[in-house]
Amino acid sequence: MTTEPVSLTSAxxxxxxxxxxxxVAAVNDYDVRVAKVEGEHVWHVHEHTDEFxxxxxxxxxxxxxxxxxxxxxxLPKGSLYTVPRGTEHRPFAPVxxxxxxxxxxxxLSVGDRHDDVPDHVDVTTGHALA
Length: 130
Ligand code: NI
Prior knowledge:
The chain has 1 helix and 10 strands. It has one helix at about 10-15, and strands spanning about 20-25, 30-40, 45, 50-55, 60-65, 70-75, 80-85, 90-105, 115, 125-130. Strands 1, 2, 4, 5, 6, 7, 8 and 10 form an 8-stranded mixed beta sheet that branches. The protein has a two-stranded antiparallel ribbon with strand order 3-9. The longest helix has 6 residues, at about 10-15. The chain starts with 7 loop residues before the first helix and ends with a strand.
């Protein structure tokens, strides 16, 4: 991890892959990750951790399967949302979108349980910046 300031603009310009998060910082035992996303991710659940999303650009929708039923939260640029642990969720971006995610180091992008993972979704705990 660098001891120099990190430009999110530069970090986001350093890769093109969708749904393939880069680790830009560590805070205690949490990662700060950024990702470029578009289209559908996969329904999945993190049994033991909440997952924090901040939309840097574009628009992120997150489908949620809650005890009361299924709903979708819509996050325009500048909005944030925390998916509670144990809640099945599926991010979706209708347009090219950039997000920041804050979650424990080692958290898998597709959670502890998930539907079949499409080819365009990277199964990762986050990649180092190039
Ligand atoms: Ni998740």
